[in-house]
Amino acid sequence: MAVKSDLSPIALDDFAPYQISVMAEGLARRMSLIVREAGGLSLTQWRVLAAVAEQPGRSANEIVAVTPMDKAIVSRAVKRLLDMALITRRASRSDGRLSHIHLTAKGRRIYERLAREARTVERDLLAGFSAAEREAASDLLAKLSAAVAKMSD
Questions:
Q1: How far apart are CA 74 and CA 60, in angstroms?
Q2: pTM value?
């Protein structure tokens, strides 16, 4: 026997969480292909590389805080990037338990090549937007990110 419900079905084309998920998945697939083909990296490794390029000397915990990845995933990516000689890890002078991660020259070259590709993806994504629309989209994305963070608390 079918269960009756007064709840109407969700129209996925109008359901923001679904639409955002579809967009994020599409962008992740595109970036994954780029970083694999142009740099020989996984998307996880690219995210770590990008986080370190953005702020050299980040710790693994700081990378976890700025990327959508948990500590174990970041730890595996850091190990692989160390093995590939794309990053170095230096012990903190003030806290021996903490280490700071930096790009090597090789890591910097790969990051720069991939960053150019990533900027092309962003440019293609926003090509149909005016400057005002790009600014509004950035503001809306920030608000959505804050709302998601608040839900996670």
A1: 7
A2: 0.86
